TrEMBL record:
UniProt source species: Pedobacter frigiditerrae
Protein's UniProt name: Uncharacterized protein
Key words, A-Z: Membrane, Transmembrane, Transmembrane helix
Ranges that cross the membrane: 40-60, 66-87, 123-140, 146-169
C-alpha cells in the first residue's frame, strides 16, 4: 500500500509539472511573438528613416539632372511600398492574442508565415530591382564628379552589397524565418492541446 501511495504522489507531481511547463511554454512563445513584433517595428522604423534620409538628400543636395530626381523618386517609392508591406505583415500578428482566441491566433501565424515567404521571394525582387534602377539613375550625376577609380569602387561596393543581400542574406533570413515561425506554430498548437486537456 505504501508503494501505491508513493506512485500516486509521483503521478500527482508529474501532472503539476506538465501544467507548469504548458504555462512556461506559453510565456516563452508569447515572448518570441513579442520579439517578432518588436523586430517588425524596428524594420519599419529603419525604412522610414531611410526614406527620410533620401528626402533630405533630395532637398539639400543641389540636383542638376533629371536622372538624379528620377533615381531618388524611385528609391523613395520602393522604400514606401516595402514599408507598407512590412506594416501589413506586422498587423497580422499584432491584432490577435492567443489567450483570447487560440485557433485564430494560430491561423494568423500561418498567414504571417506565408506573407513573409512572399515578401522575401516575389516582392523582394521588385524592391531590389527598383532600388538598383534608382541607384543607377542617382549615380549618373554623382559619378560624373568622381575619378574613374572612385566610380569603379562606388559601383562595385553598391552593387556588390545588393547582390550579397539578395543571395546569401536573403536565403539565410528566409530559412531562419520559416523555421522560427513553424516552431512557434507547433508550440502554440501543443499549448492549445494541453490547455484543452486540462
Amino acid at each position: 500500500m505504501q508503494e501505491f501511495d508513493h506512485i500516486e504522489a509521483l503521478w500527482a507531481k508529474h501532472t503539476v509539472d506538465v501544467k507548469i511547463s504548458a504555462d512556461d511554454m506559453l510565456k516563452q512563445a508569447k515572448k518570441e511573438v513579442n520579439g517578432m513584433r518588436t523586430k517588425s517595428l524596428l524594420n519599419m522604423g529603419v525604412m522610414v528613416l531611410s526614406a527620410a534620409a533620401m528626402v533630405m538628400l533630395w532637398l539639400f543636395y543641389d540636383v542638376q539632372t533629371w536622372t538624379t530626381h528620377a533615381g531618388i523618386s524611385i528609391i523613395i517609392m520602393a522604400i514606401a511600398v516595402y514599408t507598407i508591406i512590412l506594416y501589413n505583415n506586422y498587423s497580422i500578428i499584432s491584432n490577435s492574442d492567443f489567450t483570447v482566441n487560440p485557433n485564430e491566433f494560430i491561423s494568423s501565424l500561418r498567414l504571417y508565415q506565408i506573407k513573409r515567404l512572399a515578401l522575401y521571394n516575389k516582392l523582394y525582387w521588385f524592391y531590389a530591382i527598383a532600388l538598383s534602377l534608382g541607384t543607377i539613375l542617382y549615380f549618373v550625376e554623382i559619378l560624373d564628379h568622381m575619378s574613374l577609380w572612385a566610380q569603379i569602387i562606388a559601383l562595385t561596393i553598391s552593387f556588390g552589397w545588393m547582390i550579397f543581400c539578395s543571395t546569401l542574406v536573403r536565403k539565410a533570413v528566409i530559412k531562419r524565418d520559416k523555421e522560427r515561425i513553424a516552431l512557434l506554430i507547433e508550440k502554440f498548437e501543443r499549448i492549445s492541446g494541453q490547455f484543452h486537456e486540462h
